[in-house]
Write a structure and sequence with these properties.
mainly alpha
Length: 449
């Protein structure tokens, strides 16, 4: 199947993901209220942050090397399954017994709640292995299965939230029960998507067979060193970018409390949902570029980034206009403070869709260091502006800091890309006749579906 068809299918499937994510956000906010929503947002952010910290970028490394030779599938999967399990057990041990001595303030305090830390660790491992499956499907260009995997998790959460929304379950509404539900959804999602890949592993080479094989990643120290070395830059870039996205959660809670974080998590979460579409398209682009790089591919990547920007501009712009009305309508009047913060974040989030696409290209040509540079610059901007603005301006200050960070990161990546491939800056934002034809074709297919 062609890149265009893969991208179109991924685009349509992620429209469903966005819809389910919005529905889940609404149900969760209405059931837990602003303060409960703030507490749950911190838990989810902690799971995501720890998953990145304890994965060392190896899922990205897997995409890069599997795209070049699929024979390493079985040993790679087995190695990652064992490696992540060992790392997570070590984390559990250190975190449980030495939590009071850890200088990190980004982690939930759960020492007095053994169940809480067990749920946290199970969620991390399930999420790590879920990400491995996404990497495998992406590497083999099985984007239909990857898209199903992405849809399944919010669909499971939506089904559970609908049940909890019934009056009979009202006594069970608590952050703790939603933590349990979240963990169960991660585990079920991984198991459901692992079963179809088992047959593929049977035809893959084993560890012993990979030793000293010319032309592929070998199962020895040098092979592992190469695997980890490639993932290291992706690891640093992903960690920096995630903190760029989520550090404001911890700072808002620290300076203003969980209720204000509840307001802010709705604003930030809604604005960042616009990245689901470019993020998934970037996931399609990454393995294609890893197989077929070149200046001509760079021009195609810029064309894709420009089209996706305008596709996201429509719902983003509409959301900006109607947010004062729609947020209190669907979330409840108590979430009125979220509307202004949402609009401010959108100012940076919409242009950042271009960065999402270009990052996939840069990863495919082994220039993850540029993604890292942009992420670090954005993170520095986030930290400085958050500390300056949140104490006095609360969630509005946090929103302004995020918007500025996204805009600056986008400019850094665009200027580098334009300079490296000698592409005029106007090509990143100005539509042409061919773009209009493509957009018209996408709209026709969407209506037909």
């Amino acid at each position: 199947m062609s890149f265009k068809k893969h991208t179109t299918q991924t685009l349509f499937s992620n429209i469903l993901v966005v819809g389910l994510s919005v529905a889940n956000s609404v149900l969760l906010a209405r059931m837990l209220g602003p303060e409960g929503r703030g507490h749950f947002a911190i838990y989810q952010a902690s799971v995501n942050l720890l998953t990145i910290w304890l994965s060392f970028g190896l899922q990205s490394s897997l995409v890069y090397f599997l795209s070049k030779d699929e024979r390493i599938l079985k040993p790679s999967f087995n190695f990652l399954a064992v490696f992540f399990l060992v790392i997570d057990i070590l984390f559990f041990t250190v975190y449980f017994f030495f939590q009071d001595r850890l200088p990190v303030g980004l982690l939930p305090k759960t020492k007095d709640d053994l169940e809480g830390i067990v749920l946290l660790c199970i969620s991390i491992y399930a999420f790590q292995m879920f990400s491995v499956l996404i990497s495998i499907y992406t590497s083999f260009f099985q984007f239909n299965k990857a898209n199903i995997t992405r849809i399944l998790l919010p669909a499971l959460m939506f089904s559970a939230f609908i049940l909890f929304y019934l009056p009979i379950f009202k006594p069970y509404l608590s952050v703790e029960n939603f933590m349990r539900l979240n963990t169960l959804a991660y585990v079920l999602n991984f198991v459901a998507m692992w079963i179809p890949i088992r047959s593929k592993m049977q035809s893959s080479l084993g560890f012993a067979e990979l030793r000293n094989k010319p032309g592929i990643l070998t199962a020895d120290f040098q092979g592992l060193k190469t695997f980890f070395a490639w993932g290291l830059l992706a690891y640093l870039a992903n960690a920096a970018q995630f903190l760029n996205y989520r550090l404001d959660y911890w700072l808002v809670e620290y300076f203003k409390g969980p209720k204000d974080l509840g307001y802010y998590s709705i604003a930030s979460g809604l604005a960042q949902m616009i990245w689901i579409i470019p993020g998934s398209v970037s996931g399609v682009l990454f393995p294609y570029i890893a197989k077929n790089s070149g200046d001509n591919q760079a021009i195609k990547s810029v064309n894709i980034a420009r089209i996706i920007f305008y596709i996201c501009l429509l719902p983003g712009g509409s959301g900006f206009i109607i947010s004062d009305f729609i947020i209190p309508l669907i979330y409840g009047k108590e979430f009125i403070p979220s509307a202004l913060a949402f609009k401010i974040i959108l100012v940076g989030a919409i242009p950042f869709t271009i960065t999402n696409i270009l990052a996939g290209h840069l990863a495919g040509v082994n220039l993850v260091k540029i993604n890292l540079m942009g992420s670090v610059i954005g993170l520095v901007v986030t930290i400085l502006l958050d500390l300056l603005l949140i104490p006095d301006f609360g969630i509005i200050g946090a929103a302004a800091a995020s918007a500025a960070s996204y805009l600056i990161t986008t400019l850094v990546v665009i200027f580098y890309f334009a300079n490296k491939y000698n592409i005029p800056l106007r090509n990143f934002v100005l539509l042409n006749k061919n773009d209009l034809n493509i957009l018209h074709s996408i709209i026709k297919k969407y209506r037909a579906s």
